[in-house]
Amino acid sequence: MYIPYGGIFNCKTHTKESARKSLKKWYNKVTDFDNDAFNTASATIYEREDEILNFFVNRATNASAESLNSKIKAFRAQLRGVVDVPFFLYRLSTIYA
Fold first, then answer.
1. Beta carbons of 23 and 53 less than 8 angstroms apart
2. In the 8-state DSSP scheme, what is residue 38?
3. Long-range interactions of 15-24: CB distance < 8 A, separation 24+
4. Which residues contact 41 (CB under 8 A, 6 or more apart)?
5. Element (H, E) at 64
6. Quick one: DSSP state of residue 20?
7. Total-model pTM
8. How far apart are alpha carbons 39 and 81 in whole angstroms?
9. In whole angstroms, what is the distance from residue 18 CA to residue 12 CA?
């Protein structure tokens, strides 16, 4: 049984409330499917539902912030730690600003 979840986010006409209704239908399908892995995922999504549905307010994600964070972590790992914090921040600003 296929349980589409991404379809909720692909619909360009969804508002926050219409997406909430679609998500509730998805919860019902997951419950009917009766699979522990899907039930765990469904419960996690249900706990964060309001935060997830905020996407439909202006259709923005935090992908750019997450990308920058991963670049900073990789840069720090490449240096094997940071001793001089001001110089590290200076290097970050010259490379990624």
1. yes
2. H
3. 15/56, 16/53, 16/54, 16/56, 16/57, 19/53, 19/56, 20/49, 20/53, 23/49, 23/53
4. 30
5. helix 63-78
6. H
7. 0.57
8. 40
9. 11
Token pair recorded at residue 49: 């539902």
Structure tokens at 10: 């692909």
Residue 6 is which amino acid? G
Q: For tokens 């039930």, what's the residue?
A: 39
Which CA distances in Å does 70 have to 31, 65, 73, 77?
A: 35, 9, 5, 10
CB 23 within 8 A of CB 8: yes
Question: For residues 11 and 58, what is the distance between their CA atoms, to the nearest angstrom?
Answer: 14
In tens, the pLDDT along 13-61 reads 888 898 899 889 889 988 898 888 888 999 999 999 998 888 888 888 8
